[in-house]
Please model this.
Amino acid sequence: LRGDDGGVLYYGSMEACAPEQLGDGRVGAYTDVYALGALTFRLLTGRPVFTAESPEALLEQHLYAQPVQLRSVRAGLPVALDGVIQTALAKDPTRRFAQPGAFADAYQQVVAPNSMMRVSFSATPGSETARPRANLSDPSRAPSRPRGSGALRAPTITALDARPDGSTASRPLAIDAQWIDDEMLAARKRRKRSKRAVWQVAVAVALVIIVAANALFLSGAFSHNKTAIGAATGDIEFLDSSSSTSGATDAVQIVLRNVSAPAAGHAYYAWIINQAAEQTAPLGRLTPTKQTYTLRYVSPAVGAGAGANLLTLGDKIEVTLEQGTVALPVGKVILSATFPPQAFVHIQHLLVSFPTTPGKIGLLVGVLDQTQEVEAQATLLQNAASAANAAAVQCGAQSILDIIEGAQGPHYRPLSAACQALNITLTGDGFGLLDVTQADQSTNAGTGYLDGASDHASLAATAPDATPDIKLHAGHVEIAVANIKRWLLTADQDALKLAAAPTNSVAVADLVAVSDHAYHGVSVNGDQTIDPVNGQAGAVTAYEHGQFMATLTLTAAATK
Model:
């Protein structure tokens, strides 16, 4: 709305404002999808997608922050709902559902796929509901801030405050007004008539989603007081056990929902099946937890090391109903899930093994391990600088160069005997994190763990059988890898400076900071969480989202 002074007036909480509404983007049906995604998030979790202490901070959240995962707010929600909500709330409109009806269909497919009470929406492409062209170059697809002072006229942005007598008063908001352009408001006026129809559809879809969400709670799917009603389903998540080193993927967590309590003497069991080899590995018995059945299995450790990587044991998981204790599945198959074979090959390259790496470790495992070594050496170098030990600083700098660049790097040098006498011995595994010889560092062309991880995340996402979870989290891996590359290129330059001038305190501080970012990531919006977005995600986040790519959804299976 336009105020008397020409400024933009905001009404309401702005809880569901899409990024394109806050900038100069074109609005359409996909804008309504964002609003419905925010509404559904609140219905399922009881809290808004974003909260902030000021309107300015809330605008920042909608423009740049990544929504948290549903299950981090409320346990027991289907894992697959995260992919649906994250798609609806994508910063880039081209990454969202094109129409509200498509969002409603995807939501229903997760919460009640076999329901006969609802007819799917059919989307009719048109000029108003078609997705806009992507115009965002940032890897996170978040809107970029306009730069320069002369590109746009800066309108005055004000908020309306209610007075006790019922009237209102406007006040200015301290925010970069270039984000909102007069042209956007003019465009809205031109589309006012067609938008009325879009909002009518949006309201209808909102009612559908409200009914569906309420049905979930009333049916007991997320209640602790009733037996759940609906189609049996479940989720499978692979992770590292607390007792293993990072990069093991030696644990799995399974949650079943909407399954009936088995008869006396019967129980649900889970199994990993290698269909080609016709081998079956038991995962154990699921136990009732409130209104779900759960199992957390950890592969037995081999000696002092971790257990077997569970992604190597098979390509299918089944849940069966068994009588008594059994060593092999003989009962009825209740639920099953199969890895999509074409995408799964690349997930294994990320998390299990890759033919050309040292020890054939997975590419993301190498990223995690080697960035941790860089961060550890940066800490030792900082201690040496504090002690004014120039020799140790130079050795630490060379160690970091060797880890980052690998044995083929232009600055690789074996550590001298003097360095080893100072207990500085780490040189990495020789494969290298990145190729610093690239002419264009903005591309993914090159060698090393980072380029390999980015390539295979992309290959998994573009495989014909890639699931929405694979596509979503592969994109997060690619964003994190791009962040790590930028930070490590800076670390490489800092290490070169310190090798030549070990008393350069500025280079020491910078090296320590970017090395920590490369491994842990960094929270830049004050919420103390590391989001899988540009400028935040590091190696830990990249590895976690690599494991999220392996998430499976259990669905009803035929009997044996």
